[in-house]
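Service request form, structural biology core

Requester: graduate student, group of Dr. S.
Request type: structure prediction, single chain
Budget code: on file
Notes: please return the result as structure tokens.

Sequence provided:
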Amino acid sequence: MTTPEPGGRSRRPDDDHDHDLDTVHASPPAADAPARVRGARQLVGLLPQLIGYHPDHSVVVVASELLPGRGPQLGQMVCSARLDLPPADAMQDHLDAVRAPLRQARDVASGAVLLTVVGYDLPEREPTVVEEEHALALESAARRLAAATGTHLHDLLLVRDQGRQLSALVQDGDDVPDRDRGWTPVPAPADVPAAADLVLAGRAALPSRAEVVQQVRQRDETAANATGVALGILELDLTRLDPGARLGALAAWVVDGVRPSARERAGIAVLLAERELRDAVLARWLPELGWDAAVSTHSLMERCPGLAPVRAEEWRDPVARLLSLAGQLPQGLDTPVLTMVAMIAWVRGDGTLANEAVDLALERDPRYTLAQLVRRATEAGLRPPRPAGTGNRSARRSGGRPAA
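Core staff response, request fulfilled:
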């Protein structure tokens, strides 16, 4: 389902297509500062910040749960998914890739689940006039998707002109008459409070998915060569490796931004090649996954008691530093770090970054087991596990179990 192309672009409808599914599972907003989105127009203005880049030639599906007892207009976004825009005759099969996350959302919802479906850059037979065949195929597939998942199609929108114009086919659950289907401007992020808040928090949307790919695939070959030399020296006598010091250097870089030396990077690479220690680091950074319950001999986190944690709400900068570290390791030794990035991004709800990181990890080592598991989770749109009691929705989540 993830794109194998290094460029990572969204494919045009006449390209050979694949299910390129980027799923974002939204965390519940803080009770004292909820981010409000008023209507589908503001939602379209928010989507680039939510997904992480400006989608093009895509279909985006957003699921929102109506909150019982809070009035018909108040809901909570629970997940969104982006797919490459397929040819018209493949639209229904293509959107079926979103069924699993939508069924999960419906299974744990207390109220009705509403769908907003947005088609980006559908083919035009002339400027501003979308090909009717493609629009009808998207509408039919969206209605079938809602029926198959027990959800309700609330809004169906088309977006064109590099995300600047939209037209509604279904609005607030009602079909929009042909005479009213004109193009209107998409609100700018500054005019959507939720989007503006994300921008101020450092989550400005990248220009395209290719920018995400570039971040994941960044390489510093000079530093990587220096790491390789230091690794050769270290392998002459591995007894000189100080695990505590090297884990401290890893934490100092990821958490505090203190850049590691070539010698420290070599030691980090050797340590993370040991899969149990890699899991120990992940257990420290993703404790909500309940790693200890699966280990009968000892606590994973006891392997690295001094490793500083990564705060759940401040994970993006640490992950960016992990990607920089991966680019400073010889190719092949970066697989554990890339897989850790994919794991963290999946748990934190960024399907795009998880997809791209696991793609590169599996290019390096197709048999790397944890990367294979993350790939399966992202392909199915599975939610990561959440322990009971971590939020209003968390106790009702399926814990990553695929819907029946």
